[in-house]
Design goal:
This protein is of the alpha/beta class. Helix content is 41%, strand content 16%. It has two domains: 187 residues, Glycogen Phosphorylase B (Rossmann fold, 3-Layer(aba) Sandwich), CATH 3.40.50.2000; 172 residues, Glycogen Phosphorylase B (Rossmann fold, 3-Layer(aba) Sandwich).
Length: 373
Amino acid sequence: MKIAIEAQRIFRINKHGMDFVALETIRQIQTLDKKNEYYIFVAPGDDKCLEESENMKIIELRAFGGYPIWEQVALPLAINKIDPDIVHCTSNTAPLFLKQKLIVTLHDIIFLEKKAQKNKSLYQNLGRLYRRLIVPKIISKASKVITVSEFECTRIKDFLNLKEDKISYIHNGYNKHFTKKDNPKDIYKKYIDQDDYIFFLGNTDPKKNTDLTLCAYAKYIEKSNNKNISCLLIADLKESTIDELLKINNIEWIKPFIYYPGYIPNADLPYIYSGAKLFLYPSLRESFGIPILEAMACGTPIITSNTSAIPEIAGPGAILVDPKNIDILSDKIFLLLNNQESREKQIEYGLGRVKLFSWEKTASELIRLYKNI
């Protein structure tokens, strides 16, 4: 077969969740499948993180006018020149007009749901609007829809009224460079000058629950009576946003305990996880939650949510809390930081749990799906 895979953003420097899912899956396909021909369509970027092989070609497409023009004009024109048997679009959306069989990976339908709160990012708001317009149309045309968890599969099927055979789920994996690092300080000292810290992946997306996480951290400090306080390292969040959240919640006094270096490259994250006393992931809504697996693989205890797909991924032995309950979240933070037995139990559990997930398994299931289509 000839198989075209859209992976538009994988060459950009500052990659995020869907970019890594596409990249890691394609890398494993490249290793596992030597029979089919693959054409990977990407936008130009400085991180050439994927190389061509005998049966896998990389095609860089330029388009002026932003992502919609790239996807709706440049991509279908380039695909038609190759005329593949299958086109797989990996990041929620796809061209509206394709003559080939289409597979769409729909990671979630958060953009179709009612907002938990207003999102102040113009980029994210425009992206949400684009997806709301495009997704219902392409889903009706797709031969198959893939999502990343059983929770999200049921959610999408019910919300969009899809037939059972139209949609299925394939779990994500995690990169094997996420392991416990022996000398993490060599790397994490670039981002924080303290050895005792909590790690939190926050951003401006309301689902990340950043404001309530900061409130729970403030309560943890109060419970500690200013003794042996672990600092809070927040990735991917600007100081101005943090200042605004602290002011709104009247907890500006905790700012001296917070570190906010901005975006942390994926290559450094295993060291950040390994050095952290615990990892906070109290998200309001996730279709999967790869950082859960990354932290577990690094031997880092986690506190996460009892909502959406998170229990499916974290499993029954994880510490799952109501992400809107500040008191319970702060209690669990205090417990894990002050009870060595609880910490060791969570570390052991996490190292066992991650063995259920791998990108090799993800790619194998996807190749099988290609053959079935």
